[in-house]
Write a structure and sequence with these properties.
The chain has a single domain (about 35-324), classed as Na+/H+ antiporter like fold, CATH 1.20.1530.20. The protein is built from 17 helices and no strands. The protein has helices at about 1-15, 15-30, 30-35, 40-55, 65, 70-95, 95-110, 115-120, 125-150, 160-185, 185-190, 195-215, 215-245, 250-265, 265-275, 285-305, 315-324.
């Protein structure tokens, strides 16, 4: 029975983009059933974050001690490049306040777990990717609301304290619970870990379909400019992430990891926060971003994966990789 569910889970994850497009289209045509999901989005995201925590352990933070400079650059670029990219794209395209705030919120969210998968496919530094994802997720309760307030405070009313509390409840507590459970019951976690990503994907699909349903009437008017804005922000994130890492002396393998850490956000968190604290339209950039970042990420990862990094890194980096 477990094998059956594992195969079903693999199928769900493999065709995630297809499912997102299919159910989002259904929600657009027939929004009523999907609107009922709205009040439960934060709970579903909490389950997703719990699943993320189950895949993490304390060793994921080890590089903070062994390669602190790499981790620092990854986290700093994460919270510098994407929020600013969202802000400038919104200004450039003259987006209405709700959409502009949504762009900034998407950029201020921590990186998503998809960045780790894309880094692996791209033959990047997967250990660095996992560590940067873990650290910036744990820092999100502090950095996300205050960066958002700084850049979007003039666009839309923001209760930064309520935002911070929600991120603690949605991200920090479930992730921490997942890490503790992983450490306390590793055998149990090992049995279910292959199914966990599929549960996360199902909830993500449901969340995005609900966002489409809640904004179906408005989407027709903003669809084109919204897609352009999200694509521009993502392209800026991937390219600036890669070349910023190169500029501070990182190897190509590390730079590939940082590119995905910057260009792929935890868009589900941005959706939940936007629906809870902002106009429902502010959730649209994150909804579109979820689909686009997996398309652009998989294309770039496949391209890089077919090309070996220009160099293999230093002896110290090889030793760290062997330890991992």
């Amino acid at each position: 029975m477990i094998k059956f569910f594992e195969k079903l889970a693999a199928l769900v994850c493999k065709y995630m983009t297809v499912w997102v497009l299919l159910f989002s289209t259904i929600a657009f045509v027939n929004p009523a059933p999907f609107k009922l999901v709205g009040p439960y989005i934060s709970y579903m995201l909490g389950v997703i974050m719990l699943g993320m925590g189950l895949t993490m352990s304390l060793k994921d933070f080890r590089l903070v001690l062994t390669r602190p400079k790499d981790v620092f650059y990854g986290v700093a670029f994460r919270y510098l490049i994407m929020p600013l990219a969202g802000f400038f794209v919104a200004k450039l395209l003259g987006l209405p306040p709700a959409l502009a705030a949504g762009m900034v919120l998407l950029g201020a969210a921590p990186s998503g777990t998809g960045s780790n998968v894309m880094t692996y496919i791209a033959k990047g530094d997967t250990a660095l990717s996992i560590t940067v994802s873990s650290v910036n997720t744990m820092l999100a309760p502090i950095l996300t609301p205050y960066i958002f307030l700084l850049l979007a405070g003039s666009m839309i009313p923001i209760n930064v304290t309520a935002l911070l509390i929600d991120i603690v409840k949605i991200v920090l507590i479930p992730v921490s619970a997942g890490v503790i459970l992983h450490m306390a019951a590793p055998k149990l976690v090992e049995k279910i870990i292959k199914i966990v990503p599929a549960i996360s994907v199902i909830f993500i699909i449901t969340i995005l379909a609900s966002v489409v349903a809640l904004n179906a009437a408005k989407m027709v008017m903003v669809a084109l400019v919204l897609c352009v804005a999200v694509i521009l922000q993502n392209v800026f994130g991937l390219s600036l992430g890669y070349y910023s890492a190169k500029a501070v002396g990182m190897s190509p393998k590390k730079s590939r990891a940082i590119a995905f850490e910057i260009g792929m956000e935890n868009s589900g968190l941005a959706v939940a926060l936007a629906l809870a604290h902002l106009d429902p339209m502010a959730a649209l950039p994150a909804a579109v971003g979820t689909v686009w970042e997996y398309i652009s990420g998989s294309v770039l990862a496949s391209y890089w994966g077919s090309r070996p990094p220009e160099e293999e890194g230093t002896e110290t980096e090889r030793e760290v990789a062997l330890v991992e």
